[in-house]
Specification:
Number of strands of chain A: 15
Distance between the termini of chain A: 43 Å
Largest sheet of chain A: 5 strands, parallel
Order of helices and strands of chain A: HHHHHHHHHEEEEEEEEEEEEEEE
Largest interface: B-C, 78 and 83 residues
Helix content of chain A: 40-55%
Structural class of chain A: alpha/beta
Radius of gyration of chain A: 24 Å
Oligomer: homotrimer
Shape of chain A: globular
């Protein structure tokens, strides 16, 4: 693995060599060592921001404090100020880090204020998502079960807030948020995707929704569905180009279907069957399915 | 995102508006604010219940305490009483929460006792699962490696206990348990599924086993396999209907196969090849595979 | 679930029965009870080893301590000695556990030294992986975002170190490491796989790379791709046999493609389209895709 001669009686010297190599690397690769002004945002703090949002939106579900009519005002005030403080710190780091963005205090404050101001609207959207998931899942027993344990709900919750920050042009933090949800749920929604009201994801593992996807209202998606790009071999040259499909209202996409391409439009009320592979548009009101299972059945003498 | 005018000199007033909107939401959406009697079970506590079960079933693997012949009795007694206490609290919350269920102390105690009484039987089942996984995986080195690190084993472990609570008609908690395992492993087994002895899952990411699936003994399943419903557009109207397939003994299903429908029965000794899509029954002893890869090969001048 | 009669007035006796059953199990199943010499390595400690490696390789990203030119040497020295200590303890447990391996102190020390000596080389490899991921992903904004939040990068990072331990014939620990990454990312890379420079995984959920896969330089893999075995029904008899494919340099494999078989060789510059199922070799410079989507389009009157 390494062509130094390891001299066991000489361990200290070897260790010094390794340290020198590592420091050399820090010095010559500018991305690895930062000064006091340039620091990456903290994954742990971003995780805490998500936890705060859960406690603010659904206090009775996630807050350690018992929230009732008497203490709700005081509780919320404290929670919102804490959230504002955390947001301010992490967004400042992200803005300073990316340099492209100015970070005058006024702009930073305005971004945080706009985000916090959007919470009530997002709270309403998110409850509609929970209802959509409940209505569509015969194995769901009640709405509360969905809020505390369904991965599809959690991924949508995090996406809605990450997308709000993405719209405010906050760098890095939105993707950190959706990747935390991706890690927990296996559902990878890019914060840039535009998703309408009453969105439904069930099971969800393996779902990928690309950055430039546009999704209407009342759309249902099952596990393993990709809304992806046709080809990405041009890499960074494609940044900003619409590469992912558009889904109109009321579309249902069953498990493991793949829909690719920025010009692919799936019309209203379309149902896409499981395991399909779609690279061109589908008109309104069509049901698409695999022609017939092209399978071979052979008798099989078990060894 | 929100059409309030953000007046930076007037931040306090804006914050009051946001708080009012949130409290309004809590007041008018009955699902968000609970009284002292109605509280959701705690995800953290349910996670601790799973950890306790690991330490009870395989003390030498997961317990911080060194368990040996001398202290095993004392250790287990303490662990079982702790577990009983945690179960009692969370099941009480779940029962009170769902209201449909009475929560007289006698019934609650009987449920906890029956669950704890089932641990030795489940311990035996689970060790058989570990052996099945070891025997079927050429890359496995020993049984212990499977118990401490294999996701398929972990998902089956959690499912077996969640299913025991499901059979005792405990609401919410079983699904919370399997969703915790889903989050860790990408394997989504509904606690309602009925699964025989010696069950094997390898790799596992993307596996979905629906609520009404019935699986025999010695069944092997690989990553990305769905045992799902043909259509769920009727949503809650389908609650209780058998929507997911039945697999007889000795069935093997390779990666990313999809098997759908409550009337689909996969016969004994059947082998289902990778990437197949199956919506009708398969007789005993048949091997099913994709007819031939319908692929296009074009010469490709790399740009 | 269990056919003991639960007598509620007699709870103590019932509990004693359960404890007896559990202890009986420990006594009769040789795998469950260990003596002082035989203990399994700790998942928590192996997780800490990964965290240490992150802090050593990219201090400005993951270290709580602010690392700069002045304190880098001291910081690294401390980190490397801590890492050595943790490695030493866990590798000793793994070696003693598997018995096959001797664990004389000299051999153990040599293994730890060789591993730590390989860190600078792996640090270079890993930064090349990050660059490859950045160049290939139009939605990536900068390299730092990839290092702190991309699951593909994290899985490759962990794989590179796990593979180094695998090459040093350390048992159990390498798989524990890659399974920790699998749990976080949905990407399952067996530590035995041989992977060249500049490796790229995007989205990644559902990726499976088997133990005997061999992958060249500049290879790109998307979510849901399996590099697997054709059949594993011979189980442990296949241990050591090449069961997984070989990918030459510059291969791209799009989402949810499945490539199977130890004799399957994918040639240089090949592009494998999404959803393909491949069980035989492909010559250099070929693009493989699904012939045409075999789909059925039916008009669908929404109920």
């Amino acid at each position: 693995m390494n062509n130094k001669t390891i001299d066991i009686t000489n361990a200290e010297l070897v260790m010094e060599d390794i340290i020198d190599d590592l420091i050399d690397f820090y010095d010559t690769k500018p991305i690895t060592m930062f000064d006091d002004k340039k620091q990456v945002p903290s994954v742990d703090e971003v995780n805490k921001i998500i936890d705060d949002l859960k406690k603010i939106v659904f206090p009775s579900y996630f807050s350690q404090v018992k929230v009732n009519k008497e203490n709700a005002h005081e509780h919320l005030k404290k929670m919102l100020f804490d959230l504002d403080d955390k947001l301010n710190k992490q967004i400042r780091l992200a803005m300073l880090f990316c340099k492209k963005q100015d970070c005058d205090e006024k702009h930073l404050k305005s971004v945080c204020d706009q985000f916090i101001g959007s919470i009530p609207k997002l709270q309403n959207l998110i409850l509609k998502d929970a209802r959509m998931i409940f209505d569509g899942d015969p194995s769901a027993v009640n709405l509360e079960e969905i809020i505390i344990s369904y991965p599809g709900f959690y991924a949508i919750f995090v996406y809605r807030f990450a997308h709000a920050l993405y719209q405010l042009k906050v760098p890095i933090i939105p993707r950190m948020m959706t990747e935390l949800a991706h890690s927990k749920t296996g559902i990878d929604i890019n914060p840039g995707a535009v998703i309408g009201d009453n969105f439904f994801i069930d099971h969800g593992t393996g779902v990928v929704i690309g950055e430039t996807a546009v999704i209407g209202d009342y759309v249902k998606i099952y596990q393993g569905v990709t809304l992806g790009a046709l080809s990405t071999h041009k890499g960074q040259l494609l940044a900003g180009v619409k590469r992912h499909p558009t889904l109109k209202d009321n579309v249902t996409i069953y498990a493991n279907a793949t829909i690719l391409g920025g010009e692919t439009v799936i019309g209203r009320n379309v149902v896409i069957g499981g395991n399909t592979f779609i690279t061109s548009s589908v008109a309104d009101g069509i049901k698409v399915s695999i022609k017939k299972p092209e399978l071979e059945f052979t008798e099989f003498s078990k060894k």
